[in-house]
Amino acid sequence: MRLWPALEAMPGPAAVLAEWRRLAGAELDFLTPYLQPRQRLAASYPHVVGGEPTYPYEVVEHGPDDFVGICPETEDRIVLTRKDLIVYELDWPLFLGDIAAALGFERRAADPDELPPLTRLVGDYRPTAGYSFPAYLTVPLESRTLTSAVCMLVSTSDDALILLTPTRRRLRPDAQQILERKKCCFLPLQEALAATGPRQWHATDAAVQALRDFTDLHVPSAEADNGMEFFPTPAGATWADLSIRFVDGHSVAVRVGAAGGTYHYAQMGMADGRNARPTKQWELLQALARNHGVLTWKSPDAGRKNKKRRELLARDLKAFFRLGGEPIAATDDGKGWRAIFALCADD
C-alpha cells in the first residue's frame, strides 16, 4: 500500500492535502479520517514537474484568501487559496487506537517527550495473563533515526518489546541485530495490516504469525521442571473470574472465561518432590473447598500450620494461573481466610 511509505516521506508527518494525495494516491481515503488541520498555514506548496517533485513554491499572501506560489528557480506562479494551504497532520490518538485494535493490543498512551523522537507508544500486547509487552510505533525519515530509536527503546526496557514502523525500508542490519539479540518483534505496518475501508483495519496472516512466534519465545507453554503446567488464563482476567471445582481428591475442573480444563495436582505444581504425593497446600485447597471457600478458627480444618500453607498455596496458584494480587484474602472480621475465586468440593 502506498500510504505506508507516504508516512515516512514527510516530516511530522504533516503536509498540505495536495502532498498527501501525491504520496498516498487513491489510498488517501484510508488516511482521511485521521487527518486533522493545523492552525498555521503552509509557507510552501508542492511543485511537481513531469510527475516528480521539484523546488516547492514559496507562498506569498496578497489578501485574506489571496495567495500566490512562486517557484524560486523558474519564477513560475500559481494561484492558491487558504484551503490549499491548510496543513494536515495525523490525529495520533485515533490512529494509534485503530492500530492497537486491529493487532489486538491494549491501548495505552505515554508522553512523547519520554520516548525517542518520532516514536509513540501504541499499547501493550498481552497474549495471556501475567505477560505484557509494550508496542511502539516509530515513523523514521531515515535509517539512522530508526537505529537511534531502537537503541533508546531497548536500553530503557527490561523486557522484550514490539516495534512497529510504516515499512521495513529504514531498517539497517545493525538495528535488526539489536532487535534480534533482545528477542524483540519488528512488525512493519505495510506487512501487518490490511484495510477493507476507512478505519476498517485487520491483521494480516503475517502479523498473526509474527506475534505467535514472539509469544512462543517469551511465554512458557511446556511443563516446568517440577512438572507444573501453566493455565491459559485469558488476558485481563482476575481472580474473581476463576472457578475451581474438585472432581476427585486428585483433580479439579478449572474455568476462567472461555478457558477451562481438568488438572491433576501435579500439573498445578502441588506434588511433593520426595514422594509425588499431594502437598499440604493441595490439602488446604481441599479444606477450603469443603468449607465453601472460607476457613475460620471454628472450621474443622483450622490449625496454626495453615498460615504457612496458605502462603504456599497462594504462591502455587499465582504461578499456575499467572495472575497478580492475592487469591486468598482475610475475612471481613480478620479471623479467617476466604478464597477470592469460586471454589467447591466434588459432589
Mean pLDDT: 91
Percentage of residues assigned to helices: 25-40%
Shape: elongated
Structural class: alpha+beta
Strand content: 25-35%
Stretches where pLDDT falls below 50 for ≥5 residues? none
Strand order in space, largest sheet: 10-11-12-13-14
Estimated radius of gyration: 29 Å
Sheet having the most strands: 5 strands, mixed
| Continuous helix count | 10
Terminal-residue CA separation: 59 Å
How many strands?
Answer: 23
Domain count, please report it. 3
List the helices and strands and how they pair.
Layout: H1 3-7, E1 14-16, H2 17-24, H3 28-31, E2 35-41, E3 44-45, E4 48-49, E5 52-53, E6 57-63, E7 66-70, E8 77-80, E9 86-90, H4 92-103, E10 106-107, E11 119-128, E12 131-138, H5 143-156, E13 162-165, H6 173-181, E14 185-188, H7 189-192, E15 193-197, E16 200-203, H8 205-218, E17 242-246, E18 251-256, E19 259-264, H9 280-290, E20 294-296, H10 306-321, E21 328-330, E22 336-339, E23 342-344
Parallel strand pairs: 12-13, 13-14, 17-23
Antiparallel strand pairs: 1-9, 2-9, 3-6, 4-5, 6-7, 7-8, 10-11, 11-12, 15-16, 17-18, 18-19, 20-22, 21-22
